[in-house]
Specification:
582 residues, 11 helices, alpha+beta, five-stranded mixed beta sheet, disordered N terminus, ten-stranded mixed beta sheet
């Protein structure tokens, strides 16, 4: 891949040359770049496509260098009946300020659009050929001389070869239309053979007064970086199809996503929604934010996550499942970019925001319940060169995609990751143990046996309570003292070792009946939810289930601690029993 920093002058020369020779096309791109969220032309889901189109990921080594495309040295034979239509796809990239807070429009760069789907269309908008740009943004088609054709580039990364992928940037406020950028319809001749398409940011000095054509392509390029890193790490599995839904209407307000009321950028299990509200919060140039959400996609697609999601901020004491997922995704974004400074621009003129050093080891809250601890452990393991290759994602990739992690009988947490690392990379045991100790996390097994860091609440330990089918009561408490829903100790966990198959009954009774508790039970096997008991009976709950021999996990919560709407401090203690039914 051509280093971007070294190619800026060449790209700027190309854009100047493009504007001189094909100024009509550039003006059309700007004028036609609206639609839906006001960016590049969205293509509706009903647009005609070609199922027989050839697709290949062009290697950089097989194409001319960027500098060679700027002049007139391309081969053009007046005797040939075929014309090679080729050029570069580029977009404006707006970096963050040197202090990592806010965007710096005055330092905007021109970057190549890598891995993008490019199509050559005729005068009837029929697709003649399709291909993808290489790592320098270069594309090429051969077409009949004098034929009327135009070039379209989609904000879409697609590979039909194995491993395959298909990532689209779409507008959730416009029927999930796909963003695209079109050139003009021009006859294919020697004089029109070179056709560069550039996506401008739309920023004109104090506001976005022009369509924000670059945004979808900037989002796609962040994803392309992750694809490359995951492939280098050794991935051989197909990437599940994913849409990244961005719009200038996407704002930090809860409501109807079809109106852009998405609340924040997030992954919902099917798509990633990305903020784009000018002077409030825009994320198209916040690569860490985009790749954080793509990290959640990675967990779902290639690994495993038992996270229940929900709000989280620095310093929170979290449910261990959430701490693992959020900490991993923070570290994942930093690893993909090889940049520990997590940045998120927002505010008026996108001039404010926040920055966080993912590699930092000293935190106000450290432990198995801290996403800051998890991200520190993972990122510093990644950058370590002690007995391993520094900044090689393959080790973490192999652990996260291993059967030991994906099929663990324990729920996902930093304990499961560390246990998997010790099993797969025993030579790195000392390294991971040191990182865990720095974060006040016990050197233990996947279930955190022997953990002594309670987070300030004795009831949070042991991490998993052991319950036997002897009907002996075990006392636990569900509390919102650290916050509702996804915080430490809202849920209590039990490990259940079944040696003989049979029907087992779990019963819950509030230790001191207050008349308003609402205990619920959830039964898991290898992370899969097998049974739910959410009865309406006050102060008690029962769950009966046939269980084969194996290890299971029971989760207990008081429904009152699961909602932010409950403003009362709640700590409800219960006696939990288990027996083999007749």
């Amino acid at each position: 891949m051509l280093p971007i920093a070294k190619s800026q002058s060449a790209y700027r020369e190309l854009i100047r040359w493009q504007r001189f020779t094909l100024c009509v096309m550039c003006l059309c791109l700007l004028a036609c770049g609206g639609g839906g969220g006001g960016s590049s032309n969205p293509i509706s889901g009903n647009s005609k496509t070609s199922s027989s189109a050839q697709f290949s990921l062009l290697a950089s080594s097989s194409q001319p260098s960027v500098s060679s495309l700027a002049g007139s040295s391309l081969s053009r034979s007046s005797l040939s009946s075929v014309v090679t239509i080729n050029g570069l796809i580029t977009y404006d990239w707006v970096p963050h300020n040197s202090n990592h807070i806010g965007l710096n429009y005055s330092a905007a760069e021109i970057k190549p659009g890598r891995g993008l789907l490019v199509e050559l269309l005729d005068e009837n908008n029929q697709i003649l050929f399709s291909s993808t740009t290489n790592n320098e943004g270069f594309y090429s088609f051969s077409v009949e001389r004098d034929k009327l054709v135009k070039v379209r580039v989609k904000a879409q990364l697609r590979n039909n070869q194995s491993p395959s992928w298909n990532f689209k940037v779409t507008d959730n406020t416009n029927n999930n239309a796909l963003y695209a950028m079109d050139g003009n319809l021009i006859a294919a001749t020697d004089n029109t053979a070179v056709r560069h398409l550039h996506a401008p940011s739309g920023w004109t000095g104090a506001a976005y007064t022009q369509p924000r054509v670059a945004a979808p392509f900037a989002i796609a390029d962040s994803v392309y970086t992750a694809i490359e890193r995951v492939m280098v790490a050794g991935n051989t599995r197909n990437f599940p199809t994913l849409e990244l839904r961005w719009s200038t209407n996407n704002k930090a307000a809860e409501g109807d996503v079809l109106l852009g009321e998405i609340g924040t950028s997030y992954f919902d299990g099917d798509a990633i929604y990305i903020l784009g509200d000018e002077n409030n919060d825009t994320d198209e140039y916040d690569s860490h934010v985009i790749l954080h959400e793509w990290g959640h996609y990675f967990e779902a697609a290639f690994s495993r996550t038992d996270s229940i999601g929900g709000d989280h901020t620095y310093g929170d004491k979290m449910d261990m499942r959430v701490a693992m997922s959020e900490g991993f995704s923070n570290a994942f974004s930093a690893m993909m970019l090889d940049d520990p400074d997590y940045r998120d621009a927002s505010g008026s003129l996108q001039s404010s925001g926040f920055s966080s050093d993912v590699s930092r080891k000293v935190h106000s809250v450290r432990g198995w319940y801290s996403e800051a601890s998890v991200q520190s452990i993972l990122y510093n393991f990644y950058t370590s060169g002690v007995g391993k290759t520094m900044r090689d994602f393959s080790d973490i990739f192999n652990i996260m995609t291993s059967s030991g992690y994906a099929q663990s009988t324990a729920l996902t947490s930093i304990y499961v990751f560390a246990d998997g690392l010790r099993n797969l990379l025993p030579s790195q045991t000392t390294n991971i143990n040191n990182l865990l100790s720095e974060q006040n996390i016990a050197l233990t097994d996947a279930f955190g046996v022997g953990e002594s860091n309670s987070g300030g609440y004795a009831g949070s330990l042991p991490v998993y309570k052991i319950i036997q089918p002897d009907n002996a009561p075990i006392n636990v408490c569900s509390t919102n003292r650290f916050g509702a829903y996804n915080k430490l100790a809202t849920a209590q966990f039990f490990v259940v070792n079944i040696t003989s198959a049979g029907t087992y009954e779990f019963s819950v009774q509030e230790a001191e009946e207050s008349g308003d508790s609402d205990p619920d039970l959830y039964l898991y096997s290898n992370g899969f939810l097998r049974a739910i008991a959410e009865g309406a009976e006050i102060d008690r709950e029962r769950l009966s289930r046939f269980l084969s021999a194996g290890t299971y996990v029971i989760e207990l919560v008081d429904a009152r601690v699961m909602t932010d709407e409950n403003l009362e401090d709640v700590t409800a203690c219960f006696n939990v029993q288990m027996q083999l039914s007749n």
